[in-house]
Amino acid sequence: MQKGLQTKAVIIEAALGLATQIGLEGLSIGAIAEVTRMSKSGVFAHFGSREELQISVIREYFTRFEQEIFYPSLQAERGLPRVRALFDNWMKRVAVEIQSGCIFISGAVEFDDRPGPVRDALATSVQTWLEALNRAIVQAQQCEQLQAGADPQQIAFEIHGLILALHYEARFLKNPGSIDRANTAFANILARYSAPQLSHA
Q: Could you say which residues of the chain have pLDDT below 50?
């Protein structure tokens, strides 16, 4: 059993690396068998279908997303420090993904109009991230650090939007200075929604 789990982990690692390059749609039992130098039947025995392989990659990607972004941010104080930690941790990941690609973004393009378990797994992962960001924003409002009357979903939308724009600017257009502009845009968002006592401090 232990050997089987180790083999499955090796397959998922290979599939994750491949998916960042060619997208989830490009994954297949045959492609992973070639990369891992295993037989197709050997790969198939661990997943049973191409769809299950894709979902396993999404789950692994999200697990790493949590470990790098969610959990470290919980060490920050509730309120703006946690909102900033979520953003800063995400920016660190984006700096890597500018080179390797983001499965959430590429997957959204591939599966946006294709209902099914793969799309559901992608959407659930992204929604979980947005809910975490939204909670941090609400806590910042409760701490009287962000305007109480502001719509937390709007703030989260703007922060999420600038990250998506950064991927487009930096990875696709390769515009220099994109990360600095994203950091400036984030600071502008916080300044616009800061509670009066903070904005005049």
A: 199-201
Length of the chain: 201
Q: What is the 8-class DSSP label of residue 77?
A: P
pLDDT score of 1: 55
Per-domain boundaries in the chain:
55-199
Quote the pLDDT of residue 156: 97
Q: How far apart are CA 181 and CA 77, in angstroms?
A: 26
For domain 55-199, the CATH class is: mainly alpha
CA 70, CA 47: separation in Å to the nearest integer?
28
End-to-end CA distance of the chain: 60
Cβ neighbors of 31 (< 8 A, separation 6 or more) are: 18
Residue 198 has a pLDDT of 55
How much is the pTM?
0.87
Using CA atoms, how far residue 123 sits from 27, 58, 161, in Å, is 19, 10, 16
Of residues 162, 28, 50, 26, the one with CA closest to residue 103:
26
